[in-house]
Design goal:
The complex is a heterotrimer of chains A (102), B (287) and C (695). Chain A contains three helices and no strands. Chain A has 102 residues and is mainly alpha-helical. Chain A is elongated and about 55 Å long. Chain B has 287 residues and is mainly α. Chain C is built from 30 helices and two strands. Chain C has helices spanning 2-7, 11-30, 35-57, 88-111, 118-137, 141-159, 166-197, 202-211, 216-236, 245-248, 254-263, 268-275, 282-304, 309-329, 333-360, 378-392, 398-411, 416-444, 465-469, 471-477, 483-490, 496-499, 508-523, 539-548, 554-557, 570-594, 596-605, 607-614, 619-664, 672-694; strands at 65-75, 78-86. In chain C, strand 1 and strand 2 form a beta hairpin. In chain C, helix 15 (333-360) packs across helix 24. Classes of the chains: A mainly alpha (102), B mainly alpha (287), C mainly alpha (695). At the A-B interface, helix 1, helix 2 and helix 3 of A face helix 2, helix 3, helix 4, helix 5 and helix 7 of B.
């Protein structure tokens, strides 16, 4: 069994990111859309930590700290908004809010 | 163009496309089969590629990598394809835990713990709360209509897997051989020392070599010299802490402010009563 | 008084300005009392002006007063001080502007009573007096220009005073735009003076010209400067071809016509040329003489066939201004200024009398619709008669003396143009006497016949609603002396039997100024014959001698630069012009008093000529075709080019994005998922592109 290299992690990160993207695009449920973005965050975080490890640079891990704080902030605000939107229309379907078409 | 990777990507795309919720009896099982085949094929391909030999096993034991990778990707597919949000959230817990395992493999124990605490412990719980709150009173066993039918599955899968394919092709330019130039600067070398990746400056260079001179440039709190690194095997927390509070001190403060703002914002958004209709109802104030 | 006037002459323009500001700000609350501060300010200015005049006359002031009040602005070497320069000419102008102005203010206080814009009117009038006094007091061309534009502005505001009336607005615009052409000339002249002589002050500039040692450029500029200044003077003084605005300016209230468009503002052109006489060379003077003479003739013929009371006096003003320019042109500067002085008195009197008639006749101005007015307006009849005699040039009234001097100077001029226009001027004197008394006999003599709305005030657009509610009778008695009987009768003004009993002269506010003006109209001319020191000429020539040089009688000494030819003696001239005036009056008396039918027959026989004159030589129509229409056509061509060529290009440019917008509109459905797909597709495309390029 050969050694695990940087690109192994990058492949997993890219696949996570891609699947998260698919989820963001295909799910109509607002909560699920946000959850999909969390998957994308995970892919990115994995990449960052892998880079940090293989390039011997702690900044990668520092970035993960920031990434987590952004994710937390996003979760707090976005989910609060989702709850409000749900109260308004009694649905979580993102297509119910199409006012953006102007 | 790497055709094996291309085939795996295409197969994975078809698999995921079939697995996406359609609202009626579908070819989801076939999709799962195809996707699984693609993933296994990819991992086998990864196994086959040849890489340089490091001094130590930087990437951790391969078996754990493949295990965690499989769990993560499988969990992600589960999140995306599961019609019921609660189950999807549980799949996500799986991703988080496997991710934490990956971090451990990468000697980022602190990150692993943080991930579990913050993601699994805080964010995911919030998600589950909201899911409960939002599906309250529906009383239906079945998932909602909009959860049972994916929107634009074809274009979405196509676009996403084009991107994945492109990245994979870029990662394996020549027959799967990765050329990883490790061109370590002074700071990187210090890091390497501290992470225990390289065995100090093994014999040849001695204390006076470039690696050791880099010590003086490093932060004062660092364990000094070769002995320290040997005595204190991989201590990522220390290094990350120093890095975070020296190089990214300002960014850290900003992140704190951001979190505070988010906190205040969440309180304002969630507030009911007097001002609630202004902020929450989506209507303009009438007065 | 004299001492005070010498020390603080700048109060003369300042007082009316303060009054204007005060009335402008507080006028709304002053209502009918708005005239009081204006008149008080005017009285102050009168005192100072008369003080200055006396000071110059009795020798207290020996040299022109010149002092810088403060530096108005300075840009590099270009400095404009707000300074005054007061010599005899200025003092004379100041005196008649303020004195006549005061009388007209008093008249207007009675005349304009009950108008909604009463206070506005006095604010404007005060503003006008301010501008006019600044115009004549400035020591440099820029201050003159300030006053010049100021009087133009006041004139514009006052002509358009009845702004709800479209004709008034049109007349105001016409006056303003026509004046612009003249002002343009004046501005160019000032630019030339500064560019070539580096100063705009009179004394420095004239000093340089008089001294000689001029560069070639300066000499060339001196060739042009008079023509530029002349254009300005012609515009302001309504000389041909810029005369068209003055008759239309009669749309303003009658006191305005009297003050601005007859007595003072229009003589600013004369002032300008008189002041700048040192730079007017012989060629330029011939042009001045020709234009003046021609305008005198043209306007006199136009006046022959007009029926509008005020229009007749307007053309007469044009004609008299023509005389003044003729006088300037033949070198009789003092005589020209003398005519300005006398004309101001009698023309103000005529206009105010006409205004009085108009006031009494309910705004009616057509001389065909009234007759025998002397029965109801004895005082006005008397004042009008004095004014007419003065205008017609009957000795010893004012117009006789000054016109006589100008004609004598013209006839004795060495230049052919002077001689020709002198002869024309004699003819014009005949016409003047005729049309003046045509009006007088038509309106005041003959059987009594009044317009149906006699007794009511002019139908002002601003008349207050409550006053209208009281009916016409009340309007007649707002001059209380007219008595309660008149108030009753005026309501039945159309019944002729009662009409004769009416007393329509108006309040003393109106007829007292008329009587005072009568004194001026009758006596002002005598200043040209008596009171002169050293036996030669009158007081006026002696007075103005330091300004224009020489002394003695205008006709003999004022001819500038050229040795005049003695063709006609002064005594002969007096006899000639006196008899001409009498002949004109007799003609008018025959046709318009004794035998009006004969006038109709003559008019019918000369129909084309009458139509030609009635339509003012069709000059307005010619201007319309030559200037207005051609500009209109040009404007429409440009409009078409703009619409289809310029706009077309713009629209083409705008059409592209519009088309793109319509094409892409269906993609914007507001669905979050679609946007995400679009976004990620774009991201994918970029990544693919970058990877492809990096290969």
């Amino acid at each position: 069994m050969t050694q695990i290299e940087l690109y192994h992690y990058l492949v997993v990160g890219a696949i996570l990111f891609g699947i998260g993207m698919v989820g963001f695009m295909t799910r109509r449920n607002l909560i699920m859309m946000f959850l999909s973005t969390e998957i994308m965050f995970q892919g990115v975080a994995l990449n960052l930590v892998a880079f940090s490890r293989f390039h011997m640079n702690p900044s990668g891990q520092s970035f993960v700290v920031f990434l987590l704080s952004i994710a937390a902030a996003e979760a707090a605000l976005a989910l609060g908004l989702v709850v409000l939107l749900f109260r308004k229309r009694e649905t979580l379907n993102a297509d119910a809010w199409s006012e953006m078409q102007g | 163009m790497n055709y094996a990777l291309l085939a795996a990507t295409a197969l994975g795309a078809i698999g995921l496309y079939l697995m996406l919720p359609r609202g009626k009896a579908t070819l989801a099982r076939l999709g799962l089969l195809l996707g699984g085949m693609a993933l296994v094929g990819l991992f086998l391909y990864l196994l086959r590629t040849v890489a340089e030999q490091h001094l130590v096993e930087v990437g951790g034991p391969p078996i754990y990598f493949y295990l965690f990778g499989l769990i993560m990707i499988g969990g992600a597919v589960g999140v995306v394809t599961q019609p019921k949000p609660v189950y999807a959230a549980l799949y996500f817990v799986l991703i988080t835990l496997a991710g934490a395992g990956m971090f451990v493999l990468l000697l980022a124990e602190f990150m692993a713990i943080v991930l579990v605490i913050i993601y699994a412990g805080a964010i995911l719980v919030t998600y589950v709360f909201v899911i409960m709150l939002a599906s309250q009173g529906q009383g239906k066993v079945e998932a909602a209509e909009y959860d049972r039918r994916a929107s634009e599955p074809f274009f979405a899968t196509l676009a996403a897997f084009l991107l994945i394919g492109a990245v994979l092709q870029a990662l394996f330019p020549v027959g799967g051989k990765v050329i990883a130039e490790e061109n370590l600067g002074g700071h990187d070398r210090l890091m390497a020392l501290n992470l225990g990746v390289i065995e100090g400056v093994s014999g040849g260079a001695g204390g006076g070599s470039g690696g050791v001179t880099g010590v003086k440039e490093g932060p004062a709190t660092m364990p000094k010299g070769r002995e320290a690194s040997v005595l204190n095997p991989p201590s990522g927390i220390q290094v990350v802490g120093v890095n975070l509070y020296s190089k990214y001190a300002l960014s850290l403060e900003l992140a704190g402010i951001l979190l505070t703002i988010a906190l205040v914002g969440a309180v304002v958004i969630a507030r009911k009563g007097e001002g609630a209709h202004v902020l929450g109802s989506g209507e303009l104030p009438t007065e | 008084m004299i001492e005070f006037a010498i020390s603080k002459p700048w109060l003369i323009p300042l007082l009316p300005l303060v009054a204007a500001c005060f009335i402008g700000v507080f006028g709304k609350w002053l209502k009918g009392g708005a005239a009081v501060p204006a008149i008080l300010a005017m009285l102050g200015s009168v005192a100072l002006s008369v003080g200055l005049l006396c000071g110059f006359s009795n020798g207290t002031i020996e040299r022109p007063l010149q002092e810088t009040v403060y530096e108005w602005f300075a840009a590099g070497s270009f400095k404009v001080p707000a300074a005054y320069y007061i010599d005899q000419l200025t003092a004379l102008y100041l005196t008649f502007v303020t004195v006549i102005g005061t009388l007209i203010f008093v008249f207007a206080a009675g005349y304009m009573k009950g108008d909604y814009g009463f206070w506005r009117f006095f604010a404007y009038l005060s503003l006008f007096v301010f501008a006019m006094t600044v115009l004549v007091m400035g020591n440099n061309f820029v201050v003159l220009y300030l006053g010049w534009e100021g009087v133009g502005l006041a004139s514009y505001l006052l002509i358009g005073y009845y702004y709800p009336r479209p004709s008034a607005v049109a007349a105001a615009k016409k006056a303003f735009i026509t004046n612009r052409i003249g002002d343009f000339g004046l501005a160019i002249g000032i630019f030339l003076i500064y560019a070539n002589f580096g100063t705009v002050e009179y004394t420095k500039f004239f000093g340089m010209v008089a001294h000689g040692h001029l560069t070639a450029g300066q000499i060339a500029a001196l060739g042009w400067i008079p023509y530029c200044l002349m254009l300005g003077a012609f515009g302001k003084s309504a000389q041909f071809p810029l005369h068209v605005w003055l008759p239309d300016a009669m749309e303003g209230p009658t006191p305005v016509s009297a003050l601005i468009h007859a007595a003072t503002m229009v003589t600013a052109g004369v002032y300008l040329i008189a002041r700048c006489m040192p730079v007017f060379h012989a060629d330029a003077l011939i042009v001045v003489a020709c234009v003046g003479g021609f305008t005198a003739f043209m306007a006199a013929t136009m006046a022959l066939c007009q029926y509008d009371l005020k229009k007749i006096w307007a053309y007469s003003t044009l004609s008299q201004l023509g005389y003044m320019f003729l006088g300037l042109g033949v070198g009789a500067t003092a005589s020209g200024v003398f005519h300005v002085f006398t004309h101001a008195w009698f023309k103000a009197l005529l206009f105010l009398s006409a205004g009085s008639v108009m006031h009494a006749m309910g705004g009616e101005l057509d001389i065909r619709k009234m007759s025998g007015v002397r029965k109801v307006m004895p005082i006005t009849c008397f004042t009008m008669l004095i004014g007419c005699l003065a205008l017609a040039g009957v000795p010893p009234f004012a117009g006789f003396w000054s016109k006589d001097e100008i004609l004598a100077a013209a006839l004795n001029s060495e230049t052919t143009a002077g001689l020709v226009f002198g002869i024309v001027g004699v003819g014009v004197a005949l016409l003047t006497a005729y049309y003046t008394f045509r009006l007088f006999f038509r309106v005041f003599m003959g059987p009594v016949s009044l317009p149906p709305n006699a007794g009511g005030h002019e139908a002002s657009p601003f008349a207050l609603a409550e006053e209208q509610g009281h009916g016409q009778g009340d309007h007649a008695v707002h001059g209380h002396d007219a008595g309660h009987v008149a108030g009753h009768d005026a309501g039945h003004g159309h019944s002729h039997g009662d009409a004769t009993k009416m007393k329509l002269d108006g309040s003393p506010l109106m007829w007292v100024p008329l009587l005072i003006l009568c004194v001026g109209a009758a006596g002002a001319g005598l200043l040209g014959y008596f009171g002169g020191a050293g036996g030669q000429g009158g007081w006026i020539h002696h007075f103005l001698a330091p300004v224009f040089g020489g002394g003695g009688h205008g006709a003999e000494v004022a001819v500038k630069a050229t040795a005049h030819v003695e063709r006609i003696s002064h005594g002969g001239m007096m006899i000639l012009s006196g008899s001409i005036a009498v002949v004109g009056i007799l003609l008018a008396a025959y046709f318009h008093w004794m035998n009006r039918h004969a006038a109709d027959i003559v008019g019918a026989n000369l129909k084309p000529l009458v139509a030609f004159l009635y339509n003012k030589w069709y000059i307005d129509e010619i201007y319309k075709v030559l200037i207005t229409k051609s500009l209109w056509v040009l404007g429409h061509i440009l409009s078409i080019v703009d619409r289809y060529v310029v706009d077309g290009v713009v629209f083409m440019v705008g059409f592209g994005p519009q088309l793109a917008g319509y094409t892409l509109k269906p993609t914007q459905r507001g669905l979050l998922g679609r946007y995400a797909v679009g976004m990620i597709a774009g991201l994918t495309a970029v990544v693919l592109g970058v990877l492809y390029l990096m290969k």
